[in-house]
Amino acid sequence: MRAVLRGLGAVPIKRRDDHDGSPKQASSGAAPVDNDAAFDAMFAVLGEGGAIGIFPEGLSHDEAHLSRLKTGAARLAIGGAARTEQEIAIVPCGLTFIHPKRFRSRVLVQFGTPVMISPERANTADEVRAATAEIDAALRRLTVNAPDWDTVRALDVVRRLYQPQEISIEERVELARRFNTYYHAVAADSRVIELMKRVRSYQDKLDELGITDRELARDLSKLEVSVRVLRHLFLVVFWLPLSAPGVPLNLLPLAFARFASDKLTPRKDVVATTKLLIGMLIVLLAYSVTVAVFWWRFGFWTAVVVAIVLPASGWATLRVLDRLRLVRRGLGVLFRRLRFRREVRALRRDRDALVEDVIAVVSAVKPASLPALFPADHPDRSEESSRARRNADLDAELDKDAAEERE
């Protein structure tokens, strides 16, 4: 990957410690780590008005929170401001992956208010630590941080029960960030302890039935689910002919990347990255060899057509795989609605009661200084309207039960 990374403008850095924090030979009398050349290269970029992307944690990991930041970003900004005699802006960027280990997860990218470093700022250890603390605070305002993934999962259920339906991904991430940020301050509250116990029990029941909270909340009828499945099947049929030309070149690398990635990397935090690199490199190699063979056998223009058709076929293959996944999910929902209809209906009633209690507890323990994400009179955030809606839903459920008993 060295040639690829250098071609992208990456600057290699020599690290004093490995990811596990164990000291290298530098601690036993070897020559100290020298990154002067790397810093000179980055200072030159800043001097030309360019931008540098840097992950200040200095490592990849699969923890549920930011790791302790290294001081490299702050030292680079302070040193760059002094060298160039101009103000340097550190723009914090938060990355929130919806499914971190999935090959093609959606991700929310947010940028915060820049941390400005002036040329007059002294390049001392205290100033470097202060700037690093500023960067840390800016990043935490843009990321979801919790002590462990079990807490993240439970608070995500709370977030889904609390939020109005169909809000934007930005609002969902902001809610998740707030719940994880302020949870530790109210975790000992008896109301919160009891609520979290019920939330975890609710999630366990969802897992047993094999459905998601979203599917349960939307309460789609069997006809609606069937129509969605048919629509996805139609789109599969539409994309299938376009995917046909490159099926062997696309499916085999994707399958290999999916099933071999766990064995080709010993670290859990880079599984998705391994899938991406393996799939991309094998597909590009396969495309290159195929185009070369067609050029050799049939001429230049035939190779040009093949070079256009293969990426289009790859894109169509991804569309087919996406739709097949949605078809499989839809059929699973339909099956569970038919087999576990009484259990699903009872769990929906439990959910309605839990939504009302979540709203009440969150409203009671929320810090007064925290600005409201939704208007106070929002129909899904009012305890009175929530109770009224719940009663109406229960009446509808009872009517549905009575109709099924008559049948």
| N-to-C order of helices and strands | HHHEEEEHHHHHHHHHHH
Largest sheet strand order: 1-4
- The first-to-last residue Cα distance is 65 Å
* Number of strand segments: 4
Radius of gyration: 27 Å
Computed structural class? mainly alpha
* DSSP helix fraction: 55-70%
Write the layout of secondary structure elements.
Layout: H1 2-7, H2 36-47, H3 72-84, E1 88-90, E2 93-97, E3 107-111, E4 115-117, H4 125-140, H5 149-162, H6 169-186, H7 190-209, H8 213-218, H9 222-243, H10 247-264, H11 271-298, H12 300-339, H13 341-365, H14 383-406
Antiparallel strand pairs: 1-4, 2-3
Structure description:
The chain is mainly alpha-helical and 407 residues long. Among the domains are: 2-14 and 34-140, no CATH class; 220-339, no CATH class. It is 64% helix and 4% strand. It has 14 helices and four strands. Helix 11 (271-298) packs antiparallel against helix 12.
Concise structural overview:
With 407 residues, the chain is mainly alpha-helical. The protein has helices at 2-7, 36-47, 72-84, 125-140, 149-162, 169-186, 190-209, 213-218, 222-243, 247-264, 271-298, 300-339, 341-365, 383-406; strands at 88-90, 93-97, 107-111, 115-117.
Main attributes?
about 400 residues; mainly alpha; two-stranded antiparallel ribbon; two-stranded antiparallel sheet; 14 helices; about 5% strand
